[in-house]
TrEMBL record:
Protein name from the UniProt record: Uncharacterized protein
Organism of provenance: Vecturithrix granuli
Keyword Membrane recorded: yes
Keywords of the record: Membrane, Transmembrane, Transmembrane helix
Transmembrane segments: 21-42
Amino acid sequence: MGKSPLLDRIHLRQNIVRWGVNILLVLALYFISLIVLIPGIASIGGRVALPWFATPDLPLRPVNLGYCLLARNYVRPTVRTVLARIARNMSTRYQGTTVIYLDANFPFLNGFPLLPHLSHHDGSKVDLAYFYRNATTKERLNTTPSPIGYWAYEQPQPSEVQPCQGKKSWLRWNFDWLQPLFAYTGVDPERTEVLLKELIAEPEIQKILIEPHLKFRLHSDVPKVRFQGCSAARHDDHIHIQVQ
Ligand SMILES: [Zn+2]
């Protein structure tokens, strides 16, 4: 006798339910470790998590929660202290403004890079979003044009310095086909210049990487603000900072 189609359907349904329960269990275990276990182990190695959400007291948040869910939001305590101070200063000066961070570091293992950022391997680095405004109305925005924070490039004007013009590197992505999606916004020069001044003024911050045209446009031509070169990711979609 052949197998009953009804029994086959019941078995299939049982398998789907079993798989669903297993996946939910794995996700629950991962989430519990993310909230309870990982922060504890990270603190032994001297790293702390940046906040998951902005609050009135600490207006600092990730560009999206994926960075926290993947544990890419860990830094040395000094980085968090500095960012908290700057975020509060920015929010006091520009009400409603939140400082947005992108990739930081993994919770542990010095020397293990947070790909594709080869240098984010010791808790001392973090990427910040520029501030943006509507390109037409000039209204200040509290979000980034790109949902992941990266790849919306603030292009240099023809009259501005362009050291990488005509140079190709497999690490310097341009994503020309994506740029029209972000054309409704541009970097807010006023708030971003103030942010850079705040970063420059922090003695613990050793190095700030942005593209040369923004360094001059935003009046931040000091030795601490540097250019990463043409054989690395562009920095006109984010600001890279490093503490001592
Ligand atoms: Zn970086």
